[in-house]
Amino acid sequence: MFGDPDKSRIIAWSAACIGLIALGGWISIPFIPVPFTLQTLFVLLTGAVMKRYAAIPVALYISLGTLGLPVFHTGMTGPGVLLGPTGGYLIGFIFAALVVGLAYEQGSKYFHIAGIVLGTIIIYLFGVAWLILSLRMGLVPAFVAGVLPFVIGDVIKAGAAYLIAERLP
Question: Looking at residue 91, which CATH number applies to its domain?
Answer without folding.
Answer: 1.10.1760.20
